[in-house]
Amino acid sequence: MQNPFHLCIIDDDDIYRFTIIQSAKFSKIEHKTSVFPNGEEAITCITDNLNNPDNLPHLILLDIDMPIMDGFQFLKDYQAIESKLSRPISIYMVSSSVDPEDIEKAKSYTSVVDYLSKPLKSDKLKEIMERTLQNLNV
Amino acid sequence: MDDKSGIAIRAMLRIGTWKLEVKTGVYMLDKVTCEVLQLPYDTKLVRGQDTPFERPSATEKSIAKGVNELIKSGTPYDDELEFKTLKGDLIWLHVIATRKLENGKCTEIFGIVQDITKSKKSQETFYKQNQLLNLAEEKAKLGHWNWNTKTNTFVCSENMARMIDVPSNIPIPMGTLLSKVNTEDKEYVEKQLALNLKNKFFNNFTHRMPLLDGTIRMIQVSGDIHLDDNGEIINVIGICQDITSYKDIESELVRKNELLSFAEQKALLGHWDLNAVTNEVFWSANLYYLFKQEQNSKLEFNTYIGYVHPEDQAIVTEHFAKARENRRFDKIIHRILLKDGTIKWILLMVEVIVNEQDEITKLVGTCQDVTEQQLQEAKFKGLVDSAPSATFIIGTGGIVQMINKEATKLFGYATQEIIGKPIEKLIPPRFNEKGAIQKDQFLTNMKAVTIDLGEDFYMIHKSGREIPVIATLGPLQTDEGLIISMAVRDITSDKIAEAKILKSNKALEILTKELTAQNHQLADFTQITSHNLRAPVSNLNSLVDLYKLMEDEAERDELFKKFETVISHLTLTLNTLIEALTAKSHTSLERSNLSFSETLTKTKEIFTAEIERTQAIIKSDFSEVDVVWYHKIYLESFFQNLIGNALKYKSDNRIPEITVSSKITDGKVTLSFRDNGLGIDLDKHGHKIFGLNKVFHNHPEAKGIGLFMTKTQIEAMGGTITVTSQVNLGTTFTIHFI
After folding, report:
1. Does A101 touch chain B (CB under 8 A)?
2. Nearest to B546 among A22, A97, A118 (CB)
């Protein structure tokens, strides 16, 4: 496949990362995954591949609570370079926090498609992946 | 007449003869003449020649002229002449001369001289006295008259004649006199005169008389009737006096007296005088009225004292006694008790009059009914007394004139201890400066004002204790000057309440702070709890889901390992949280005196391996304070946590150096841990630093629990922990013990 669906997980919880990766496998959608334990590494990678759509993810599952650079800090930096992206990215904020403040803050970022709370069920994941694919083809 | 006897007679009468021979001009003087002139006997004088005695010029002229006339025309000469004798005596001579004719020619002048000095003198005296009398009459506006009752004519003196415009010194018929009398009084006068004659006794009377210029004078007529041995009237001598001015003065006096009485009445005044010598007492009409005493009743000095109110008698009597001593009477207000039971207040002022020997001759006093004023003053006093707060009435110079019951109660003084004293007696001296300024402002503005000196105002109780007060000043202008009313309110209870409120407030503030802090902690805690528990739980859920989906045994085994990881993570988190909760609830943990240096040594022992490995240098400075009253376990825990962190997060570029030091700031102990390690970006992570599981570096051993617990424990003991840091330079944690 030329350009397989690129799923990106930005989260410091390795168990969670494991569960998502496994869930994605059960979606039966062909894909590749990349993981980053914190926002800093993620933004670095994206910045490096601004003009390299093959290396850019289609979908990002972004956690809030991460060391070094958390989800919101990542979003701030992301928005600064968003316009330079060669291809748009769908970002979903995923967190175990149900703090309404966090939810609102997340939704205030235009780059964020939606806010999801953990645990993320596999069928939900599948749904998101399908939706993102649809948007891409349109 | 026989010449000898003639001579003798003439000598007796002091008549001298003389002869002048015209041809020779020689005077022949007889003995008497010479005696009279005090010339030596047989002196010969020659006509035309100077005489040895002096002759005033009038005399000379008269003689010369008279002699000439006599010689020429025979005109007899008869004159009274003044001479100065040889011895210098002044004499008057009556000179008569005639001529002797021989053959139609005058050959001889002969005459007599008579010494009339005596009679001249008495004549002169008489004349002078008459002049004097006239003058006296003129000045006294008198005139005298002589009434010849037989002819019914009057002879008036000069002055009288002038007064009534009739000729003087000649008999004037009564009718003429009567015509001068005022028409209306004529009948009256006539009657009086007739009556006087009848009674043979002159009763004085007055009548009016119009003058030519239209004015009317009052004439008083008085006289004496002279009777002869048979009781028949010889004549009546009397005087008429113009008493118009007296009458005017009299009516003026009466008028003034009336005015005085009127004034006394209106002013409720009465006056009296006591003649100290005769003890005669006089009371004015209004005094009778004031004292409700019958007019013209008998009066003594004690009559007055008798009216004085029994309670005031002692003072009044004393006053009079003092007055007699000092010759001065200080005015006094006393009560009088009248016969009908009325009580009045009298202001008594007395003037003591002394003579040259400093003996008291008279006492003159005024009594004014001041009942009304006294009642007003009593009312005023009553008002002041009943005022709800302590009130002072202050007069000029800051002297207290009146205080009320509340004031005596509040300040512990008796009334007489304060009255007459300056109000400053009750004010602490430290307020004097500011007080003076405010007083000046107050006096300028003349408005009621509350004393505000920018600090709490106190006044002094008799015992010396200071009372916190609020004082208000109010001005009042009176005739006697400015009086100030000062109302003082004791705010001790207010102050106590205020202090209580402030204390409560402070306690509340502290409580609020604590609660807020605890609330924050709780919020943090809640957040931490929700997140740190939810994460592993959600992972478990996800893993369970996966387990259901997986079919492969190998994969399931893998999965199970993950379960273990998550569960142990969850367990750790739960334990930490429980430990934190326990720390929070144990606010009264046992404390003891702990040494920083000892604790550091113990910590170094625990980290021996790590220190060696990293070659770390650990320095300390506990010179300011080495001992703290704290919980042992916690203190050891801080040391381990912070030193452990410093070692863990050392910089790769340099040898780790950790300095632990203690200080006392504002009486509070602080403990600092400074390292030269990786540092923390506080801008990015400052707010997360003490949270649970916040790890800022990708360090394998970074679990992120330590600082959370440290902070919780410190705050449970009532202290705080702060951090400063710079990336790649180092970090300093400071613990503030309370």
Report:
1. no
2. A22
